[in-house]
Amino acid sequence: MLWLWNRRKLFPLLLLIFIVVGGLMLTTSNHYHKGSHRSGELRPQTPVVSDARTVAVDIRNFDFFPRELTVAAGARVTWTNRDVAPHDATEEAAGWSTGMLRQGDSESVVFDTTGTYRYLCTIHPTMRATLTVTGRGPAVDPEVTDKIAGRDL
Ligand SMILES: [Cu+2]
């Protein structure tokens, strides 16, 4: 009789423990999954070529958009941080940098010298991108370029 009484009390308690532990495991794995974008596996992106005088690069989800950008010499490229986390865009050869950008901050760099610049975020070195400056601007519909860059999305 005593055993039966205990068992009846024990069952709801065990059920509660299962629910709490299961919920915690689910939450933990979910957080782990959300954090996986920092592991260096970046989603593929379409390279963007722009002949515009001013070109925008968005920083969001620990990534640069567009990650591969080609602009014409003399273009002003503006990086804007859309993340809560601070980011920067710094050339690997340390030739130029936006400096640290907090959420919503923007910084522009004017590129007069042709070449290919590889840059990264110094706090999150898995965030890497390439900027190519060409001598002449290729004929690209700026509206299409804007769509590819995600500014209309
Ligand atoms: Cu960063």
Q: What can you tell me about this protein's structure?
A:
With 153 residues, the protein is an alpha/beta fold. The chain has a domain at 48-138: Cupredoxins -  blue copper proteins (Immunoglobulin-like, Sandwich), CATH 2.60.40.420. It has two helices and nine strands; from the N terminus they run αβββββββββα. The strands form two sheets. Strands 1-4-9-8-6 form a five-stranded mixed β-sheet, with no helix packed on it. Strands 3-2-5-7 form a four-stranded mixed β-sheet, with no helix packed on it. A hairpin with a 2-residue loop joins strand 2 (54-60) and strand 3. The chain is elongated, with a radius of gyration of 24 Å. Copper (II) ion (CU) binds next to loops.
Annotated CATH topology of the domain at 48-138: Immunoglobulin-like
Low-confidence stretches: 26-37
Instruction: Name the CATH homologous superfamily of the domain at 48-138.
Output: Cupredoxins -  blue copper proteins
Strands of the largest sheet, in order across it?
A: 1-4-9-8-6
Query: Which hetero compounds are present in the coordinates?
Result: copper (II) ion
Structural category is alpha/beta
Under the CATH scheme, which class of the domain at 48-138? Mainly Beta
Mind describing the biggest β-sheet?
5 strands, mixed
Which bin fits the share of residues in helices? Answer: 25-40%
**Helix count, DSSP H or I runs of 4 or more residues:** 2
Mean of all residue-level pLDDT scores:
79
**CATH architecture label name of the domain at 48-138:** Sandwich
Task: Assign an overall shape.
Answer: elongated
Rg over C-alpha atoms, rounded to the nearest angstrom: 24 Å
